[in-house]
Every structure is written in C-alpha cells, then in structure tokens.
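Next up, a chain.

===
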Amino acid sequence: MATESPYLDAAREALWARQSFSFIPDRDLPPPTTVVGPASGPRVAFAGFPSDYSLGFLLALLELDVQLCGIVTSPGAHPAILGDNALSRIGDHVGVPLVRAWRVNDEHSQLQLASLRAETIVMASFDQIVGAKALRIPPRGWMNIHPSLIPEYRGPEPVYWAIADGAARTGITLHRAAPKVDSGPILEQAEVVIGDTDTAGTLTRKLVAAGVELLPPAVDKLLTGVLGTPPDMSRSTYRPSVGHRLLESAASAREAERMVRAGMPNMPAWSRDEGSPVYVFSARVLDGPAHGPSIPYADGTLELLSTSGTCHCHHNLADCPHRRS
C-alpha cells in the first residue's frame, strides 16, 4: 500500500511546478503537522539529498506498495543537511529515521543501516562510494539511479557533461549498485533527447520524469531478485567533477554557450568584468557584435544576457572555492 497524505501531495505539486531541477542539496519543506506512519509492504530505505533530483525519486517511492523504513543522507555535502530540510521533514511526517552517515562504510554507519532492517535501499544522488560490505547489508542489495545511459557518462556530473559536450541524447539508468562506481547490472533504462535550449536544470527535470516512470518495475525487479543486465564496460566513459568553468577557456562561442547552459543552475560558468568575477546564467551566440557584455571567439560572439557577482551554487560567494581558471 502506498504512503498517502495531503502533505506529500503538496510536496509533489510544488516540486513538479518547477521548470528546472537542481542537484543543490538545500531544499526544505514546511514542517509537517501530522504523522501518517509508513505503509505496509516490503521494507525499503532511501538514500539521497534534499535536492530536487533526490526528492523526485523519494516522493515517487512513497507512491509504491512498499514500506519506507528510513532515509540515509550524507551531511558533509551541504550545511542544510545538518538541520531541518526536505528529507528530515518527510522522515518526520512518515515516522521513519533519518540517518546522517558521515562515512557510510564505517562500522557505526553500517550498524545504523542494519538497524533499518531494509530489504533494499534505493539511492538517487549520493556523494559517497558505498563499499561491498555496506552494499551487502540489505539482502536485496542497493539500487542506484544515475542520470546517464550507463556505461556512458559515469561519474558525478553526467548531466553537465552531456550538455557541455554537445551530445544529442542522454538518459536515466536504474541499476544495481556495485563497489565500482556506476557499473552495476542495469534493471531499467530510458533515453532522453537533449534540446538545443536545455540547461542542466531543464534536462534534469526531464530525466527525473523519465526515471519516475521506470521506478515501479525496477523496484519490483530488485525485490524479486532479478539480477539485471551487466553494462558493456568496453563502451564506458567517465567524466570528473565540475567547478565554475572560465568561459574564455572555451575553444568557440558555441562551446562557451553550452558551458553556460550546462552550468545552470548547479555550477554557473564565469568570466571577468574589469578584473572581478561574474557568473553567467544565460548567453547567446551572435554572428556580429553584441550590444552588451560579450566575449569574442573565432566563430562568433558570446553575448552575456544574465550575470551575477555571486555564484548561486552551494557557497553563493563572489570568490567561490569551486571557481576554476
């Protein structure tokens, strides 16, 4: 039986009203005024962040005929995780514990995971590699939800790199978690087209929507012991973490424009204005001269349409430590 309440319905409505989804783990929800208690069914825990991406899958998991038995998060990712946030609010409302695992593979965290008595754990965005011992704690293992067509774009920033590279399509993969990152057998997968104007935020929203449709059959396969299909790792690609990338480092105006779209809203690209950093939220390529701030390239001019003196990422600073030259 699904976990139902007006509170959860309102949270879903507010989330899907957003046209852009973020990976920044700072989302909060209103304090719940009721406790509905978990539903009946197989005991399933969730691991993720208070971000739009994670919340999309947590809220979808609560619509399935499973019993949410706990939520796991990684408190080092953002200060908001240490206080009340969207995950803690949902945990309080459903009456399940929130496990803040600083190091998911240490003995204390593994004891906490074991105490949840979960048959399986569904993970959607998590900044720690779960080791073999922790993966074996739930008898049905863990499932990871990765926003790419694994084995392509393995790693922490697949949405960014798909746009920045000019890929025509990407996708969402629901797969069994393995000690080697983004490499476990595939349970469900769907392709998503990347539009010419997609930002990381609009593309992430499309990826979550596609993944939510695949969640019911993937969870059913997980709980019934379906092993999944091993990915062809001979086609594997891995891309690293991304900072605020300098637009002048791009080889062309079109590459720079993709960098701008790929950086929004999680990690905006930047340039300089009279020696000070400016973070660029939108831009366009012109064949001729621009009427406002711009950067010239051999293939055209990048006109900077929207900028800010602060980065609007995790730090929201002018001198952000994520900034790369």
Summary: Residues 247-308 form one domain. DSSP finds eight helices and eleven strands in the chain. Residues 200-223 form the longest helix (24 residues). The mean pLDDT is 95.
